[in-house]
Specification:
By secondary structure, the chain is mostly beta strands. It has a single domain, classed as Immunoglobulin-like (Sandwich), CATH 2.60.40.
């Protein structure tokens, strides 16, 4: 069956409107995509929806679960530099 998995992430840091997603597998960090405000740029095989701003929730979706999906997933809130504010 086509199983998906969703992981939410939220923070309360004022002025931080970027969330980066990673997974840690075999001691390596793999970049999965990012969200700035409500605009997402996921890597292939993933979806990112929501709002990365303080008080919002950014949700990472793994589109197709495989044995390789077993990992520790991390989200990191960042201040967005001036050039990426809308």
């Amino acid at each position: 069956s086509n199983q998906v998995h969703q992981t939410p992430c939220s923070h309360s840091i004022s002025g931080y409107n970027r969330i980066l997603w990673y997974k840690q597998s075999n001691r390596e960090f793999v970049f999965l995509g990012y969200m700035i405000g409500t605009s997402a740029s996921p890597e292939a095989g993933f979806d990112i929806v929501g709002d990365a701003s303080a008080g919002g929730t950014s949700t990472l979706t793994i589109k197709q679960l495989t044995p390789n999906s077993s990992a520790v997933y991390y989200c990191a809130a960042n201040p967005c530099p001036f050039e990426c504010s809308s």
